[in-house]
Amino acid sequence: MPDTADMHDLGWHAAVTAALDWWRLAGVDHAYVDEPADWLAGAAEAANATAARPAPAAPRKPPAESPPPPRLADPANWPQTLDAFAKWWLEEPLLAPSGLRRLPPAGPARAALMIVVPMPMGDDETGLLTGLAGRLLDGFLAAAGLSRTDCYIASACPAHMPAPDWAALNSAGLGTILMHHITLAAPRRLLIFGASGISALLGHDLPISAQSLPAINQEDAPVPVMAARDLEAMLARPQLKGSFWANWLAWTGQ
Q: Which pLDDT belongs to residue 28?
């Protein structure tokens, strides 16, 4: 490295150039400091921040609309007699999911009383209401001075279905089928057990109090209707049988 006397002889520009050339020849071509510095710290922090940032949510697709339930055939093609209806009730595929055991209605046309339940009970074996709920029904009929031969017994659905979607069944036309069934049976009175489910099929609430009992308009004359709770509910809560019997006496004028 040139000494101080020589630097005085050289011009300032020449001195600086000479010093840089000297360090370059020594293999030093960058600026250095004595204190260490972590040049990668900033990059690591940026990488950690990027990793911690939640990934953008995928765009939400609108929920797919459920296809409408299939509609039953044109009412003009429905059976026009009770015998034909019972056969169709067991065979029409749109009336109930495939694989379920169906039970037909039973009884004479123009019966003194038509009894409708939402569907066959889980323990019905040989016919509608032949299980435990049927025993309760038989006891009621005996107290009312009736028997099964005086009644037409039917269900709003041909098969037992756990947790049925009544609104969907009504959209499929099952409520209209029920009204057609009642028209064919032409009973003098109509007793409906399980009013909450069947109300959805008929399109209006069926009161279960004796003070407000509806009627269903038929071609000949309105059919008086009494609505009641499920027979299974009466089995579980025997106290309900008392209010049901009181409504029955008020309805029949006994």
A: 60
